[in-house]
Amino acid sequence: MRRGASDEPNGDREIFEQAMRGVERLPGRPEPPRRPPGGRRRPASDGSPAAASLRVTRDGERLTGHVPGVAPRQIAALRAGELPVELTVDLHGFPEAEARGALRDGLRRARRAGLRCVRVIHGRGLRSPAGPVLKEALPGWLAEPPVASWILAFVSAPPRFGGTGATLVLLQRRRKAANL
Prior knowledge:
alpha+beta
């Protein structure tokens, strides 16, 4: 039996894009990651887990996200605030586009310095007419390349680190270049 064009991965994409013509993305929503032709996800450039593998769960106001293979004890330690916060990135008062860039720059700086645990202060959006814009956008920003390839896990911070107005991010250890 011959497969029809709509059964092909590229055919599905063309049909979807045709159906979505004229539809506008809601403000504050990150663009979904694009797949290359053939439907396969590209591996992250440094061999780390791909952005698409970031699993995010919500429990009321609390967020948790991690890549597959992260030990549950690491997530529990992060959630309990047992890991030392080595850098804080405060996004309070930033417009959304600037907050996204400040987050990326802060995480890049932390990664280059070999830091593991970063606190991101985004607020709960209680005084914002638009609600928790930064808090809602954060998981999408953490799932975007190249940032996604640096992340192991993230959780809503425990109360002493800002509660649900902040997120603790656990970065991967940087791999040392092989000496040849």
